[in-house]
């Protein structure tokens, strides 16, 4: 099976569990976990790896969207 599909499935499953638990763990913790999971997925979950400049661009965009 394709590595990208497996990593995308794991990423999606983590986000679904995080969404279901956000009332219990709080908004700040769930947002922080979302940010960390997204950074890890962008760094290690995509094959072939994307350049660091693109990862930084996506991470900064994610951070700005979370702050809004």
How would you describe the overall organization of this protein?
- The chain is built from three helices and no strands.
- The longest helix has 23 residues.
- The protein has 68 residues and is mainly alpha-helical.
- The radius of gyration is 13 Å and the shape is flat.
- Helix 1 packs antiparallel against helix 2.
- The mean pLDDT is 91.
Topology:
Elements: H1 3-25, H2 27-44, H3 52-67
Quick structural summary:
With 68 residues, the chain is mostly helical. It contains 3 helices and no strands. The chain starts with a helix and ends with a helix.
Write down how many β-strands occur, each being a DSSP E stretch of 2 or more residues.
0
Q: How many helices?
A: 3
Main beta-sheet annotation? none
Order of helices and strands: HHH
Structural class: mainly alpha
| Outline | flat
The radius of gyration is: 13 Å
Quick tags:
84% helix, mainly alpha, 3 helices, 68 residues, 0% strand
């Amino acid at each position: 099976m394709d590595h990208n599909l497996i990593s995308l499935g794991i990423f999606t499953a983590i986000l679904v569990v995080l969404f279901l638990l956000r009332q219990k763990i709080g908004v700040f913790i769930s947002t922080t976990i979302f940010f960390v999971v997204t950074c890890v997925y962008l760094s290690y979950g995509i094959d072939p790896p994307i350049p660091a400049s693109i990862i930084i661009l996506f991470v900064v965009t994610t951070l700005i969207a979370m702050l809004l």
